Amino acid sequence: MPYMADSPFKSISILYRKSHIWLNSGCAQYHLSAAQAVVILIVCDFGGLTQDEITKRLSLDKSVIAKTVTKLEETGFLIRTTNAKDKRTYDIRPTEKAWAVYPAVKEQVDESFRRMTHQMTDAEREEFKRLLLLAADASLALDE
Amino acid sequence: MPYMADSPFKSISILYRKSHIWLNSGCAQYHLSAAQAVVILIVCDFGGLTQDEITKRLSLDKSVIAKTVTKLEETGFLIRTTNAKDKRTYDIRPTEKAWAVYPAVKEQVDESFRRMTHQMTDAEREEFKRLLLLAADASLALDE
DNA sequence: TTTATATGGTGGCATGTGCCACTATATTCA
DNA sequence: TGAATATAGTGGCACATGCCACCATATAAA
């Protein structure tokens, strides 16, 4: 019998940590951590981004993205080239190796959402998704 | 203009990280981190718990709670005594210092939820809360 | 009762994340 | 143009968290 998660703050913590544990174990076979998987996902989704765009889209600290991208370059998932128009920034592009794992990573992320919502009706799941996006956008807007 | 957080997985990450940043800065005046604040909250809510109960209720790894409780004992917020019926476990009780910050900590946690849901209607906010609890409970149940 | 298994707690290690200081390059403005 | 300011990236540090190995105590099984 699971203990009741009785405050929304606590629920969010649990959802974050559990989904990352699931993604970590699901991506281990590709030698990727959850954090690395998320970066590969977004770079492939856009077919290439500047390092700064990745930072803004994931709204993580820029130093975090710098470290993750460095690692993914070393392991051959991403390629970094200096941006022609702004020498301060990098263009990040996926390699073949990244494209190869992309569908599986995407599926793992989707699967983790299905897991946490498996007892919801389709209508509840859609509403949950909508409210999550709404709250996340509101949280980002507060920092502007 | 904030970037769209376009997947529920990413939304949950953002909500978790932002709410912890808010709680960290809100609790800094009491020399408490967000993680410590959450432990104080649950110990005061129940007026005392065993260390193992805290672990299960927050569903964090037991070593994490051990470290946090050790720190909070050192800083005078909690008292640890060996449980009479089971010498392996500890009874954790709040001190006066913990009770003194408890209302403010509770308010900070509530405030963080209000922030992320400030543009929702009351009905949406209640529904969001309900779905968060539902998903968190489902996530915990999967590990049984 | 003795032995095997389960459970609560601790310490060590790795990773993720945030913050800060700093460097290099761009942009703005006087 | 030249100086002030803003922005992209890096490295260091601190803390949070998860996992694992291990120890001590309880509980179950023989």
- How is the quaternary structure best described? homodimer
Q: Alpha-carbon distance between the termini of chain A?
A: 42 Å
Order of helices and strands of chain A: HHEHHEEHH
How many DSSP H or I helices of chain A? 6
Report strand order across the widest sheet of chain A: 1-3-2
Biggest interface goes to: A-B, 52 and 52 residues
The counted number of beta strands of chain A is: 3
How are the secondary structure elements laid out?
The structure is a homodimer of 144-residue chains.
Chain A: H1 8-27, H2 34-46, E1 49-50, H3 51-58, H4 62-74, E2 78-82, E3 90-94, H5 96-116, H6 122-141
Antiparallel strand pairs in A: 1-3, 2-3
Helix pairs in contact in A: 1-5, 2-4, 2-5, 3-4
Chain A binds a DNA duplex (30 and 30 nucleotides) through helix 1, helix 3 and helix 4.
Can you describe this structure?
The structure is a homodimer of 144-residue chains. By secondary structure, chain A is mainly alpha-helical. Chain A contains six helices and three strands; from the N terminus they run ααβααββαα. Chain A has helices at residues 8-27, 34-46, 51-58, 62-74, 96-116, 122-141, and strands at residues 49-50, 78-82, 90-94. In chain A, strand 2 (78-82) and strand 3 form a beta hairpin. At the A-B interface, helix 1, helix 3, helix 5 and helix 6 of A face helix 1, helix 3, helix 5 and helix 6 of B. The structure holds a DNA duplex (30 and 30 nucleotides).
